[in-house]
Design goal:
single chain, alpha+beta, seven-stranded mixed sheet, five-stranded antiparallel sheet, 9 helices, binds biotin
């Protein structure tokens, strides 16, 4: 029985579902409970029956709103360890470029620099997208990290989602979305890149976060599946356009327009230690240039915090 495929955003009675699936009402009830236990956001009301939480990105709903090709190959999961790992396994067995795995919850969701990433069923967008930039030089791969953040910022507009290097979207110091990119490189050539995106969609967001629907009053018209399709379309546009055409200037210039951090004082936790200074610019590879009393530091990986003049976090 595939109850998930039968459910929609409207309530359907247990009786109607049982009749369509050719099973008993008790079997429907048991299957619904199993799906909820697996992490799927299903609402149950004694008087009305069963429905999916509005905007739940089940494959049928995504298909109807997909903008471009990314997401045409799609796996929708209730719970997994990390969508990065699910997609890696799929990539190793031949998944095509643009394949996407979304999970409602992750038990081992990863953030950058060894952080964890939390997401609650029905309240977030937690997904990974497969890129196969096999014709790009390895040296160009760091730009993908900017591309992913830029894709999100472009979709939301600068006022709603300003970028912090390399790809965090923070509003008033609270995190709306983050990106983790992981690459497989064989014999100095890119084989694939997993672009993992986590976005808080509905409150409550995890500590330190902000949810998309808290950030604007007009968000009611955009459901989770619409935003998901929009993000995939935006990523595909930037990837297939400027990135695959090796147009780093377009990517970096637009990134700079969509950030509020250049010119600010920052503290950057890097693998080699903490650097504080003045965020001056990005270099042509997308690295962050921080002016310090000892001269410019070129930072390729790190976590940025904006600091006020007197040294407190902004
Ligand atoms: C960060 O800001 O530190 C990056 C967060 C990235 C989280 C996403 S959620 C989907 C994908 N799967 C993971 O385990 N991590 C990324």
């Amino acid at each position: 029985m595939d109850l998930l495929e039968e459910l929609t955003y409207e309530f359907r009675s247990g009786e109607a579902l049982a009749a369509d699936l050719g099973v008993s009402r008790a079997a429907v009830s048991k299957a619904a409970k199993a799906l909820i236990d697996e992490g799927y956001p299903i609402e149950v009301e004694r008087a009305h029956g069963y429905k999916l939480r509005d905007g739940t990105p089940v494959p049928g709903a995504l298909r109807e709103v997909l903008i471009r090709r990314f997401g045409s190959d799609y796996r929708y999961l209730g719970r997994c360890a990390s969508t990065q790992d699910e997609l890696r396994t799929w990539a190793e067995s031949g998944a095509p470029e643009g394949a996407v795995v979304l999970a409602e919850t992750q038990t081992e969701g990863r953030g950058r620099h060894g952080r964890t990433w939390e997401s609650a069923s029905g309240l977030s967008l937690t997904f990974s997208v497969l890129l196969r930039p096999t014709s790009a030089p390895v040296t160009q791969l760091p730009l993908l990290s900017l591309v992913a953040g830029l894709a999100i910022a472009r979709f939301f507009g600068h006022e709603d989602a300003p970028l912090t290097w390399p790809n965090d979207l923070l509003i008033g110091g609270r995190k709306l979305a983050g990106v983790l990119t992981e690459s497989k490189i064989t014999a100095e050539e890119p084989e694939y890149v997993l672009v993992g995106i986590g976005m808080n969609f509905d409150p409550p967001a995890p500590a330190g976060g902000i949810a998309f629907t808290e950030t604007r009053s007009s968000s009611a018209d955009r459901t989770r599946v619409d935003v998901f399709a929009g993000l995939l379309g935006s990523l595909e546009d930037l990837y297939a356009g400027p990135f695959l055409h090796a147009d780093a200037t377009t990517i970096i210039d637009e990134w700079k327009q969509r950030t509020g951090m250049l010119g600010a004082n920052v503290r950057v936790e890097t693998p080699g230690g903490t650097i504080t200074g003045h965020a001056r610019d990005l270099d042509p590879t997308g690295a962050l240039i921080v002016a310090t009393p000892d001269g410019d530091e070129i930072i390729h990986a790190g976590d940025v915090t904006l600091v006020r003049e007197e040294g407190t976090d902004a």
